[in-house]
Amino acid sequence: MDRHIPFEKLHNFRDLGGYPTADGRHRVRPGLLYRSDSLGKLTEGTSDWDRFLSLGVGAVLDLRHPWEADTAGRVPAHPSLAYHNLSIEHRPYDQASLGPDVDPGPYLSERFMEVAEDGTKEMARALELIADSAAAATPLVFHCASGKDRTGQLAAVVLTLLGIAETTVVEDFTLTELATPALLADWRRRNDGRSPAWPAFGRTPAPVMRLFLAAMRSRYGSIEAYVTHTLGLDAPALTESLRANLLEPAPTAHPPLTYRRATASDAALLVRLHGTAALWQLARGIDQWKPGEKDEAHFRTRMREGEVWLAHADGRPAGAFELWWDDPAAWGPRPADAGYIHRLMITPHTAPPAAGRRMLTEAESRIAATGRRYARLDCLSTNPRLRAYYESAGYTVVGEQKSKDGGTGAPYAVTLLEKRLRD
Question: What pLDDT is stored for residue 303 in this prediction?
Answer without folding.
Answer: 98
